[in-house]
Amino acid sequence: MRQNASLQKDAMHMLKLTSRTFYIPISLLKPQLKKTVGSAYLCMRAVDEIEDHEELDSVTKQHLLRSTSQLLQHDFDSGSYQQLIEPYTNQLPEVTLRLGDWINVCPSDIVEKVKQSTSIMADGMADWAEKGWMIKNKDDLDDYTYYVAGLVGVMLSDIWEWYDGTTTDRDLAIGYGRGLQAVNILRNQDEDKERGVHFVPDGWSREDLFNYTEKNLALADEYMKDITTRNILLFCRIPLALAKQTIKALQQGREKISRGEVETIVKKIKEK
After folding, report:
1. Positive or negative: CA dihedral 233, 234, 239, 241
2. Are 46 and 98 in contact (CB under 8 A)?
3. CB of 82 within 8 A of CB of 68?
4. 102-136, pLDDT tens digit by residue?
5. Tens-digit pLDDT profile for residues 133-174
6. pTM, entire model
7. Radius of gyration of the chain from its Cα atoms, rounded to whole angstroms
8. Which long-range CB contacts under 8 A does 207-210 form with residues at least 24 apart?
9. Under a CB-based contact definition with an 8 Å cutoff, are residues 104 and 111 in contact?
10. Which of 53, 107, 122, 126 would bridge 69 by S-S if both were Cys, CB 3.0 to 4.6 A apart?
11. What whole-number distance in Å separates Cα of residue 149 and Cα of residue 228?
12. How confident is the model at residue 1 (pLDDT cuts 50, 70, 90)?
């Protein structure tokens, strides 16, 4: 097994490769939080890459997600996990292949919470794979966005409480996650249509989806009112500010915000 310091370095490198949105705020956290949030994010990203994979069929995704969920509910057996994914090692990305490493990076007194949230996420994703990712109404959209993003908010709230006793509203945390996911849905509507998946409720206009997104991001603003730890606030403010700026860009007909806009936003938040 690799030394923990080497694994932590690997984790940060993997974060940089997989998420522009979260790498920046995670890299600004103090060492213990950086290690914990980084490993937790990668655990969830590992299962997300299965759900989102363009080559795996739905049945395979369901099998991998449900089996991974079961493994996460006990002492994680890396050998069993490697056996599970072995037929797909040439298709799955490194972040998924190394789920056991990300679990090992996570501090022992919070890892069970991380595994629990990731397990619930994997099961929920499997359910939506079984349904063909066809969102019919707002309840469906709320359910889908809870499993793929709201649970990230719940997990982070668990981490804040473990770290220094910071208590936050879990429902508001779910809204925060939902809002970020809704931004992604807005950004990827055309691409999703080409893939044959439908994340927008029947009868909804693009304006309806913008309204849904903005209402959930407003819950994110409420969520942060309970947080007084500056380092945690810094972390929470950055993805939210990037999401709000992305909405403005989409309303202007742009696909995403520029690197310069990202740097300006981060600089302003760090100076607060």
Report:
1. positive
2. yes
3. no
4. 999 999 999 999 999 999 999 999 999 999 999 99
5. 999 999 999 999 999 999 999 999 999 999 999 999 999 999
6. 0.93
7. 18
8. 209/182, 209/185, 210/186, 210/247, 210/250, 210/251
9. no
10. 122
11. 23
12. very low
- Encoded tokens for 172: 């508001």
Structural tokens at position 171: 């429902």
Token digits for 190? 């055309």
